[in-house]
Amino acid sequence: MDDDHHMGPGGTVKNVVLFVGSGLGPAGVTLTRSFQEVLRKGDASVPTTLAFEPYLTATLRTRAYSSATTDAAAAASALATGKKTDNGMAAVDPESKAKAGLKTGFITTDELAGPVAAAFTSHMEHANMPAMVAGQQLTSKIDLLMGGGRTYYADKTKDWTDASYATPTNAAELEKVAKLPVLGLFADKKMDFAIDQKSGDKKQPTLLQMTKKALDLLHNDKGFFLVVEAGRIDECAYAHDAACLAHEVLALQESFDAVADLLIKTKDTACLIASDRDSGGLILSSWDPSVLKPTTTSVEAIVQKMGTMSEGSVDEKAKTQVKAATGLDLTAAELNQIKASDQAQLGSTIGSVISARAGISWSTTSDTGVDVNLYVCGDATTDVPRGNVDNTAVGVYLMKKVPSATGATTTTTTGGGMDMGGHGGHHH
């Protein structure tokens, strides 16, 4: 998989796929690996590691300029542009004029105007201006955008269709899309967690379905750059929801497998899996992943369902819904813990109670300063970041690899960056 006969000039590869595991720390990878073993017990053909683990090349430091721990926007900017920014500022680099014909795509399970999307697809200085990010994305002529956050595009739908974008709203409609450009908006806000995915006609596509469709549509003679964000791992962590986190990482692995298939076939694709930061401070002491196996819904969904129950006190509702979701019978002590929690912390309290049953604990409901992992495959050159590096090394690497992302072979002194805009020229 790692032969590099197909490297272009200066070690560029034809296609680059970057996966971003939002908030995925090293403990989350370990959790998912053990969880997968439990899920597939008895099947000798199952590898013990996750599909991307053989390609571990570096650990990334994630500090932002303004503090020792980073936020999503600053972390994403470092990945996108190879520069540190203050927390709260997404990428602020000017449009990079790329070589005609390079196709670009961005997929997320978060809102399509969220902080990671903003860093790669717009020039926003502050990540919490989704409506402005949504406006900029249209002018930057990205070929393919898929995710949640329909709310922020509602008043601009006509502009996108006028620009000949297909606008699928569910998995069935996405399946029918046969050409670029595409704006797929599959939820009003964030897309569902993998563990909560529904079936039926109008269902949201999975991360795998979005990735496969993107690979089909973007594949062309000149190459493509695709970013796939598993955008809600951090929210599982904030809710201290271990089963939810494991299912999100398994969905990331499925999508990676689809790209790995392409890699083996074509040998002209580099694939990276990076995390932007570690969320939740997951701690695995003497823990038992089998406790999580029966869980069928997220803590977020448990809390929502409690909200729809008209009868009963908080602890009664929690007892009913936790039993339905996880099979666990909560004890009086556990229910008291939940009862004592305020509404804002209800999710993470329920998550902590369930986690404790599996021997799992969490140190925070925000982010930590722990180094995160970088995995790279399909590139055998010395360009690949190795050892312990700053997270900006990913952006610097992408600028080397993605053909003409910064014009010819300009260095970063001009303030280039991995803006995806302007690649496709006119879509007419």
UniProtKB/TrEMBL annotation:
Its EC number is 3.1.3.1. The keyword Amino-acid biosynthesis does not apply. Its cofactor is Zn(2+); Mg(2+). The keyword Zinc applies. Residues 414-428 have a biased composition (Gly residues). Zn(2+) binds at D234, D276. GO terms for molecular function: alkaline phosphatase activity; metal ion binding. SUPFAM superfamilies: Alkaline phosphatase-like. Keywords: Magnesium, Metal-binding, Phosphoprotein, Zinc. Binds 2 Zn(2+) ions. Binds 1 Mg(2+) ion. Mg(2+) binds at E229. Residues 407-428 are annotated as: Disordered. InterPro entries: Alkaline_phosphatase, Alkaline_phosphatase_core_sf. Belongs to the alkaline phosphatase family. This is alkaline phosphatase. It comes from Acanthamoeba castellanii (strain ATCC 30010 / Neff).
